[in-house]
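Before relying on records like the one below, remember that each one covers exactly one chain. Contacts with other chains, cofactors or solvent are not represented anywhere in the record.
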Amino acid sequence: MAIAVNLYYTGINGNARKFAQEMVSSGTVEQIRAEQGNLRYEYFFPMDDPETVLLVDEWEDQAAIDRHHASPLMEKISALREKCDLHMRVERYISETEGLHRQDEQFIRK
């Protein structure tokens, strides 16, 4: 059962984008992607909100998330969030099954 977490980072003066850029340029994102149980770690920029960055973070299970939260990388991430004065909104999704439901497949262009 995979767990996806959407984190919306919001700041001022472009700080959310600066945060994401520093996460990538410092190699922190690659380190997180290499962690056991990480399935996805990607940043997106909403078109209608230049002060927000969306992180889509997906893990194999809760144990993988717990390991990540206990890792030294979390201290680095937290310090950078503080430096950029970011606020967060979180959404959490748990997959029930793998793949699409048959009813949804007709709407997907492959």
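The mean pLDDT is 92.
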